[in-house]
């Protein structure tokens, strides 16, 4: 094969994503620069997966449609320093392929050169020994790559060049050499290219539903450090007007004053920025003067770093937590509540015993509590408890994430495991949980005739109400909570399919009927259930 059409480039990209996902945990473990917070693999994976989502929505697989999906998808999915730079690598890559109907060997080599130029241009202070070095090595070998007779030998040469770049990174960055690792971002780019090569060599089956991966990493000399800047802050802003050169320079200078690890660029009318800072609010306020926020992501790197260090190096703590989560938004909520390991899963995506066991074994604790958060996962969790020999495993039989959140609020990390287990179980008995979904078809449920698009409400995991009117469904449900007058807080976790109208109805309903309840709202992003509610 010496030419690629749009469909083939699409599948090539998706195979690269699959291969990165297989090594995500390894890349996380290698992450020591710029901040050792163990998320480079996750951030690069999120960036690539969003590109795949855009590709899956492409109807006419012309080359232009495919490269636009890759360009826009990776932009919108970019997370973290590594993910943002990766999105710019693909921006430059796709820029070089505009208006072509097919991609040949020389086109692909030229795309690497364009990728290098755009990625270096987006980083205020480029650092060698990183993913930037890896793409630079490819750009500098343009002539060698252009001479290859077909894509099979082309990618063999690409992997040879990237392998050399990855191995050189510790020689360029003292932090890597001190830790005894290669750069995580550069290694991630290698795995993406390895996936490209696998596709060219006939491995055309693609699986992007990879939940956990092995971590074949030698011992890392992870050194705890004091972070100068605490918050990793990322914004995507749609600008009100065209940004002039002077405005762009002023914004870059502002970000440099606010922190470090600055990545900043304009793409059409979209501003994307990444900065490590101690004042994320000031950054947000500044860019609100330029346009409207499309995405905001703020991570506490100090907390991530301390968690990562304790997992890699520290003495085992007394109690650790593993929880199953149906979405990234709920995962963030659980992480903020000090859950050690998240396993993705839920109603239609039950993790296996092996998935849970990997998570339990990665927690550096003498006792580990598993929160299945779904009745279908409890048995798998119990099998982990029965087969784990080197630590005590307790299964807290939570049937939804609301129960887990309530239990984690009352978590006492240094409590004896037996007493903590009782605290968790007592908490679940004392709260009320509500899960609201919509019927996707006419059906019967527990003798009730259900019509398509009706609201279905489950109170404490039992089906209790169905109605087309959201407010009536809420009224009937809250009337069934026996001790509602003794409750104080209602926590609302908003899913992907929730509408602003429904959210407004819910808030007005609580304010008018149950004004003694304080409302806390979180973006969960879960599918199937627009609203998950905890009343405590």
TrEMBL record:
Q: Which PANTHER family match?
A: DEGV DOMAIN-CONTAINING PROTEIN DR_1986-RELATED, PHOSPHATASE PROTEIN
Pfam families named among the record's database cross-references: Dak2, FakA-like_C, FakA-like_M
Instruction: Enumerate the InterPro entries for this protein.
Output: DegV_domain_contain (IPR050270), DhaL_dom (IPR004007), DhaL_dom_sf (IPR036117), FakA-like_C (IPR033470), FakA-like_M (IPR048394), YloV-like (IPR019986)
Q: Where is the DhaL domain?
A: 7-198
Query: Organism source for this protein?
Result: Thermosipho affectus
SMART domains reported for this sequence: Dak1_2 (SM01121), Dak2 (SM01120)
Q: What is the name listed in the Swiss-Prot or TrEMBL entry for this protein?
A: DAK2 domain fusion protein YloV
